[in-house]
Amino acid sequence: MVPIALNYLGLDPYSTKQEDLDKAKDLLLTLRPYIRHMQSGQLVADMASGQLCLAMMWSGDAGIAAARAEEANNGIAVNYSIPREGTIISFDTMAVPGDAPDPEQALAFIDYVLEPKTVADISNHVFLRQRQCCCHAAGRRGDPHGPERLSARGSSRQALRRQVAAATPGARAYPGVDRV
Fold it and tell me: Would the pTM of this model clear 0.70, i.e. be above it?
């Protein structure tokens, strides 16, 4: 919340200056009377049922809440938007520890998750966009086992970037929460 408040105030979201942090604290304290709860697990149900009219939540949770409201046919529409001031972004990462007992098995699992069909299925289930190249390959461009497939094995960061770039000619970002 603090980085978002700092960003809203036009300050460096990663500031450690006490003056900036005090400004963020003051802003957040003005909002406190309007906060019903801070239980992220409850937000999906509360938004889908209309118990809340506004929430700060992850985009995937907003997509799940929208789907649940639609399934319930309760007249609730859940929309997701990003403030014009911007917001923070996060990335989920798969990594293999240097001392993993079976790094080949770990890499095989990562390869499986990177399969276009697998990543598309995951994206559709949790409403979070994954690597666009994989989603494009499975959901937009044909053969899910075609040349767009990425591999975690033997890939340096630069090689993986080249694979991603080669797999996504003409790739574009999709607005909102998309299903592939």
Answer: no
